[in-house]
Design a protein that fits this description.
With about 270 residues, the protein is α/β, with parallel strands linked by helices. It has 7 helices and 13 strands. It has 2 domains: about 1-220, HUPs (Rossmann fold); about 240-270, no CATH class. The chain is about 30% helix and about 25% strand. It has a 9-stranded mixed sheet, with helices on both faces. Helix 3 crosses helix 4 (about 130-135).
Length: about 270
């Protein structure tokens, strides 16, 4: 069983720097960590390997410093780490990112199962997983809340959709984006951390891809364009409301009255 789990390096704090020219995050030199939503995906991959055997490969796309998140995955138990990194890949949106990852997968020889975190804490689109699988022409299920059964032929999962649950069976090859409830991440052991420090990280750049045309990657291949970046203007401070419960309710009613439907305003006028 060849399992690939995708992880991402994200900013470690809310204080981030944006490039005003490209509208993208400046990642070089910024404090970073592994995307917390990717940890359940790593755990799910390790549990499947324990039952079915095979190999778990962690893949990340980012600057050279993103190697750190691959070592975190290795400390948890991943067998290999692959860093997809090249200046040509910088500034990629969902479409360009998914294309780059598909090219990397092809270079790696493909996989039976692709695992993604539910979303990331920086882009927060939850679109890379389905975009990768759609481009590969394989099945995909997102919002996986529980792994029910798996064997050599496929996997059965429970999917959470808008408060309802449904059970889905997928044949390999396929992809899953797992929720945090799907698998509680294990803590890395000291032995695992020491081993991860010495682990060789494999690197793939533009020259390694089957399609090595620079125009197919990064900002140049991204149809998403950021027109303007700005900080919202701070609103004037308002004094705190004081008074009885009834008085406070009336203050709130008056404040939201302009936004209420006409019927609600008329009801207020005729109410005793």
């Amino acid at each position: 069983m060849r399992i690939v789990v995708f992880v991402k390096q994200v900013p470690a704090s809310q204080e981030v720097t944006m490039d005003p020219g490209t509208g993208t995050l400046v990642r070089d030199g910024a404090a970073a960590r592994i995307n917390p939503y990717d940890l359940p995906a790593i755990e799910a991959a390790l549990r499947l390997r324990e039952t079915l055997g095979g190999e778990v490969t962690a893949v990340t796309m980012g600057p050279p410093a993103a190697e750190g998140v691959l070592r975190e995955a290795a400390a948890m138990g991943a067998d290999r780490g692959v860093l997809v990194s090249d200046p040509a890949f910088a500034g990629a949106d969902v479409l360009a990112t998914s294309y780059t990852l598909r090219q990397a997968l092809n270079k790696m020889g493909g996989a039976d199962l692709l695992l993604f975190g539910r979303q990331t804490t920086d882009g927060d689109t939850a679109q890379v997983g389905p975009a990768v699988c759609a481009g590969l022409g394989i099945g995909f299920v997102g919002w996986v809340d529980e792994l029910l059964h798996w064997d050599e032929e496929g996997i059965t999962v429970r999917q959470l959709l808008s408060g309802s649950l449904q059970t889905v069976r997928l044949a390999y090859p396929c992809g899953l984006a797992v929720n945090q409830n799907a698998a509680v991440p294990r803590l890395p052991t000291l032995k695992g951390k020491l081993s991860a420090r010495r682990r060789e990280i494999f690197r793939l750049g533009l020259a390694d891809m089957e399609d090595s045309r620079p125009g197919r990657y990064g900002l140049d291949a991204s149809p998403t364009q950021v027109e303007r970046i700005f900080l919202p203007e701070a609103k004037a401070s308002r004094p705190p409301l004081t008074g009885t419960g009834r008085q406070l309710a009336e203050h709130i009613r008056e404040a939201i009255a302009p936004y209420l439907p006409k019927a609600a305003k008329e009801e207020k006028e005729v109410s005793p």
